[in-house]
Amino acid sequence: MGWYIGRRLLQMIPVFIGATLLIYAMVFLIPGDPIQALAGDKPLSPAVADQLRERYHLDRPFVVQYLLYLRGIVTLDFGTSFSGQPVRDVLAGAFPITIRLAFMAIVIESVFGILFGVVAGLRKGRAFDATVLVLSLFIIAVPVFVIGFLAQFFLGVKWGIAPVTVGADASFTRLLVPAFVLGLVSFAYVLRLTRTSVAENKDADHVRTATAKGLSRRRVVVVHILRNSLIPVVTFLGADLGALMAGAIVTEGIFNINGVGGTIYQAVIRGEAATVVSFVTVLVVVFLVANLLVDLLYAALDPRIRYA
């Protein structure tokens, strides 16, 4: 097990470098002068502009800028934003909100998606199964921003049972509706994956053997059907955690949440490569760690899988 984890950690290094290099290059190639954009309508004097470029290493070649950034990551020094605030403080202010939102969304989608998927899979071909499949297809077809605006209008404006916007108070209750909106599309995918896996496994030989031995229906479903059906679902959830955090830009914009999405958007507009790459770096780490945990869960779900 230790050897396997060490190998996976080594595999993460080129992925990490490649992802950060790609994002850094994309921000670097954005047209315009970020120093002039920082000044707004008032032009800076050449001396002040040169001083700022030197301060943020913008006078160096691209490769040198990127290597300096990597050196800072090793010491957890992500640099300084154009507003003068350390990027580490910006990360500390925005990421806890988005992580809380993403985890709430993944709990909602996994619990309800697996629950409805199991029931639909066990009742394959019946009315409930057909209804669930049509509903999930409808959810996938509707864009997230449409669902967000509808939830905001009906739950917040018309019925008044939920806050219209979140703002600075990102508490559990205020994030509940945005988390539901964020995880709704993934809920449909989890539901369909679970339904398909359960429908296939319920007629497997080991399930018929367990039933013939007189095991209770609950034990057959939980131990012999559900446990073997969760591998594709867990794989999807592991990849979806990073996707939820990255895809929270739209949801955070609709509900005015001061998280990662809004911060990245503003940093891209201002051309702050250090801020953008720092946020993406954390997202990449979260994604890689989540996938490592998924690989380790395979052995717990399927006894046939062992890591030497």
TrEMBL record:
Gene3D superfamilies on file: MetI-like (1.10.3720.10)
Ranges annotated as spanning the membrane: 12-30, 97-120, 132-155, 175-193, 225-250, 276-301
Domain (ABC transmembrane type-1): residue spans on this chain: 95-298
InterPro entries, per database record: BPD_transp_1_N, MetI-like, MetI-like_sf
Coiled coil spans: none
UniProt subcellular location: Cell membrane
SUPFAM superfamilies reported for this sequence: MetI-like
Main location: membrane
Keyword match Cell membrane: yes
Membrane-topology descriptor: Multi-pass membrane protein
Superkingdom to which the source organism belongs: Bacteria
Keywords: Cell membrane, Membrane, Transmembrane, Transmembrane helix, Transport
Family classification: Belongs to the binding-protein-dependent transport system permease family.
Record-linked PANTHER family: DIPEPTIDE TRANSPORT SYSTEM PERMEASE PROTEIN DPPB-RELATED, DIPEPTIDE-TRANSPORT INTEGRAL MEMBRANE PROTEIN ABC TRANSPORTER DPPB-RELATED
Entry protein name: ABC transporter permease
Native species: Rhodococcus daqingensis
